[in-house]
Amino acid sequence: MKIQNKIALLFTLLSASIIVALSIFVYIFATESIRSSFYHRLEVRGDIIGHAVLEENESRKPIYYDIKKRHLGDLPIERHKVLLSSVDIKEKAKLPLPDDFYEDLLKNNEARFISSDTSYVGRTIVNDDKKIIVISSAVDLYGLAEMENLKNLLVIGFLIAFVFIFTFGKIFSDAIFKPIRRIIRNVKGINAHNLHQRLVIDNSDDDIEDLSRTFNDMLDRLEVTFEIQNNFVSNASHEFKTPLTVISGEAELGLSVPELPENVRQSFTNIYKESEKLEHLTNSMLSLAQTGFDGKKEEWGWLRIDELILSVKEAADKISAENKVSINFDHLPENEEMLVVNGNKVLLKAAFTNIVLNSCKYSDNKPVEIIISSDQQYAIVEIVDEGIGIPDREIGQIFVPFFRASNTERYKGYGIGLPLAHNIIRMHQGKVDVQSKVDTGTRFKTFLPFK
């Protein structure tokens, strides 16, 4: 998830949590207020009933009931139970009330309790030397309706607020990350061919300006480093090419001499093979160096991966004639466009040739199979050998220049071929997956995006 969306989501969740907490507080406070008000109304009615019972003058008793009816009215499902004695009050009341209610009533002369929707209040009423206990109950239908309406209002308000908060959060995060997205667009346009480009810096005196300046400083250092490295490799490769051609030609000329002693012929043969290998490596380095910063020397185009692998097989046959490399076409996709990739043919050929020759060398020319296939995004080339394998602890370092595995002492090499191949594949927006087991073999699986 992008940071912009994370910020919008966190802002929304934080604000929503605050609103939920506030809504719960309002609901609880309102519920307690409504319940307390209803308890008071029920207590007033219980007091009137109690005083009516305690009134000795029978002619005055109807006055209490008349006042209650005229000025207070009846509550929904209103009931009153009058107990003349506090002895065995629980048995006499016969109400679904807990023991705590009766204990509070006897101790504090009043008690309150709510069971389901029914509210209960108990009061001890004293008049002169007479004392009675009145337990009143009723259902606060209007209060329940108010609480239900309040709950619905809070839920609807929360949903509406949630939508507004998320919308404003997106707008807020979009505005905050606008300069960062501009930096990302500019950075995506910078590569090895246009390292001279720089980010546009606004005099905003903020962290974005510091980030842009820091990135431009890094590009300055990278540009200098790339130019030095590119010039060195280009010049060194050119300087190597001429003497290698001379060595190869002299060795080939020596081999053409008739009646040459066998030991001398073997020496010329070794010189010729090693010069071919070194020339191959030099050409690969030269090709890589020719991907200059201006892009004028680079020849990119659409090419079929199966045709490229055929040319790799031909190159391997020339360098190592005793190889047992085979190409498996059984998994080719029906759609030929899934085999067409955009790239530099010379570089890709060098990359795959390096991997194939490595497989041949470290398997002592045991069978090496090249499998061509594809998925929904990549053209896939698998190179499977039956060689010495790579130790698990070292497999993550095989693409480090000049690194050689601990079990390769008896094989000649410099640790350049695989790093060079890996860099070329990455240059083509591809990736390499390596699976290996010691004394069993290695599987190099390369992925190149097709058009």
From TrEMBL:
Residues crossing the lipid bilayer are: 7-30, 153-172
Where does this chain mainly localize?
membrane
What's the catalysed reaction?
Answer: ATP + protein L-histidine = ADP + protein N-phospho-L-histidine
Q: Where in the cell is it found?
A: Membrane
Q: Which top EC class is named for this enzyme in its record?
A: transferase
State the Pfam families in the record: HAMP, HATPase_c, HisKA
Boundaries of each Histidine kinase domain copy?
Answer: 235-451
Matching entries from InterPro entries are given as: BphY/WalK/GraS-like, HAMP_dom, HATPase_C_sf, HATPase_dom, His_kinase_dom, HisK_dim/P_dom, HisK_dim/P_sf, Sig_transdc_His_kin-like_C
**GO molecular function terms attached to this record:** protein histidine kinase activity
Q: Which UniProt keywords apply?
A: ATP-binding, Kinase, Membrane, Nucleotide-binding, Phosphoprotein, Transferase, Transmembrane, Transmembrane helix, Two-component regulatory system
**Coiled coil (residue ranges):** none
EC?
A: 2.7.13.3
> What CDD domains does its record include?
HAMP (cd06225), HisKA (cd00082)
PROSITE patterns (UniProt xref): HAMP, HIS_KIN
Using the record's annotation, list all stretches that form the HAMP domain: 174-227
Q: What is this protein called?
A: histidine kinase
Q: Which organism is it from?
A: Dyadobacter linearis
| Lineage per the UniProt record | Bacteria, Pseudomonadati, Bacteroidota, Cytophagia, Cytophagales
Gene that specifies this protein = rcsC_14
